[in-house]
Amino acid sequence: MRHTKLALATMAMAVLAACGGTSPSPGNQTPKITYTAQVTFGDSLSDVGTYAVGTVKALGGGKFTINGDNTAINPALTGKNYTELLAAQLGVAAPCPAVTGLNGSAALGFSVPTVAHSGCYGYAEGGSRVTNPVGPGNVAAPSLGANNTILTGSALGALTIPMVTQVANHLAAVGGKFSGTEMVIVMGGGNDVLEQLNELAVNAATAGNTAGAAAGATAGNNAFGASLVAQLAAGATNPQTAAQAIGTALATAAAQGASQADIVGAAVMAAAQQPGDSAVASPAVYGPMVAKATADGQAAGASAGAAAGLAAANAYAATNGPALVANMAAAAQQLVDLVHNQILAKGANYVTVNNLPDVATTPSGLSQPAATQALIAAMVTAFNNTLATGFASDPKVLLVDVYAVSHDQATNPAPYGLTNTKDTACDLSVAKNPLQSSLVCNASNLISGDVSHYSFADSVHPTPFNNLLLARYVAEKMVIKGWL
């Protein structure tokens, strides 16, 4: 297996020899087919700068990798993603973003008018999904805040134009059809995984918060009452009899919907009427008792609420998680139909479709519980299997199995030249990286040490070197197909 990998890597390096240096020019390599352009539809993995505006640009970002030409630090830190490297190899113009802009917080510099750029065919956008317009970073995307609070809307305001609209926009820009001489690159579905997982977490947290609040209130009230009754009755001649009378008074007031102060007053009055317990009527005596009962109630409520909330959240996730697998198969079928009906049927002759990488082995995936990792794996498998079936007999479609190579990289990185497949090259602390994303990662906010051959810039996005590996892999498949 190792010899096969090295042989393929050698072949791909010959195909993309120039891509490993500081210049992505194709050198002496001449494509077998003369392409007029590269047209790309997808998400952040293929985005060449949709959000390189406003504060994102000011922070030295714009692409979802280690940004900037940092080849002076290390030749692998080119700042390029795989679509830029492929374009050079195809002999076409360097890709540029079809649209730029942000519709997020104006105060933070994330509100920048959306501008369409004529002649630019890089439609892929960070956060985009296959057909759903709400992806990660969108103003309508929910998220979890501290203590499972539910937040709505991202300050970034990513456009997340879905792939179906990206294709429609291109067709509108070029007269309704492809020329047939473009290389069309399609890669999506990753945000359908991530946003559905996010929504599952948000909905599970909502269910947990609701159940936890109810259980916590009940347990807290019970513990408060039990503590107060016991304290008030302790000074009576017959504490057991006193406790019964005080408890009845407290329960009656509570059942009548009395305020907390009135409930306490009823309990204190009942206590003061018990033989030997008249002193309890003084605020100086019962005040500390109420304070302790309140603390006891809060502690019991927090404990019971947390347990009930966690149980409810886990139950929600377990019940609703399997639906995400079916949703991913549906998203893949939508992508298959999009390629068939709006790309091939509109004149495209060369369409490269990359399937989903092994999301479960990304730093984001590895940080999840085992059950969530299994769910992610099932979601990716459902998506990729549907693509494989849908494109099984299309001579104009090259389906590249990115999953296979990404999984192999995660489990056996050395033959690929990768030095770390689990950690992020970018320092994602808020102090160093306000967005905690590779979108604003550059030479100024990397972790210490040599990260040039790390797999991941952030929790899901590849480094320039890993982008180079992907470009080589796709190019090798194009060579085998006879397209390069």
Q: Report the CATH topology name of the largest domain.
A: Rossmann fold
Please give the largest β-sheet: 4 strands, parallel
Could you give the count of β-strands? 10
Give me the number of helical elements.
12
Number of individual domains: 2
- Which architecture of the largest domain per CATH? 3-Layer(aba) Sandwich
Please mark out the parts with pLDDT under 50 across 5 or more consecutive residues, or reply none: 1-28
The radius of gyration over CA amounts to 30 Å
Q: Give the strand content.
A: 5-15%
How far the N terminus sits from the C terminus, by CA atoms, comes to 25 Å
- Overall geometry comes to elongated
Arithmetic mean pLDDT: 92
Characterise this structure:
It contains 12 helices and 10 strands. It is an alpha/beta fold and 484 residues long. It has 2 domains: 349 residues, Rossmann fold; 96 residues, no CATH class. The strands form 4 sheets. The protein has a 4-stranded parallel sheet with strand order 1-6-7-8, sandwiched between helices. A two-stranded antiparallel ribbon has the order 2-3. It has a two-stranded antiparallel sheet with strand order 4-5. A hairpin with a 7-residue loop joins strand 2 and strand 3. Helix 1 packs across helix 12 and helix 3 crosses helix 12. The relative contact order is 0.14.
